[in-house]
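User: I'm preparing a small set of examples for a lab meeting where we compare how different chains pack in three dimensions. I only have the primary sequence for this one, and I'd like the structure in token form so I can line it up with the others. Please keep the answer compact; I'll paste it straight into my notes.
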Amino acid sequence: MIGFYAIECRSPEEAELEALFVEPEFIGRGIGRTLIEHAKQKTAALGVSRLIIQGDPNATDFYEAAGGVYTGQRESTSIPGRFLPIFTISL
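Assistant: Understood. Below is the structure token output for the 91-residue chain.
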């Protein structure tokens, strides 16, 4: 396995991307793009209209290229005092 994602439905209208991971040696080969597009299609097929993403600050360009719009920030649950960007993708 070189990558995976996980989605959690939060409400009938909203889901959150809980994880998106690509093995480091495969980054830059389009695998992350394929995974996020698959996640968007599967989520939309469930009737959800918004995909929320808490991203790493270093992945901002990636999520914006995938259609994400910056909508705020959230404090990290693993690193106190670190804030992570939130993106929303309309499906």
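A couple of notes for your slides: Residues 4 and 64 are 19 Å apart (CA to CA). Residues 31-45 form the longest helix (15 residues).

User: Perfect, thanks.
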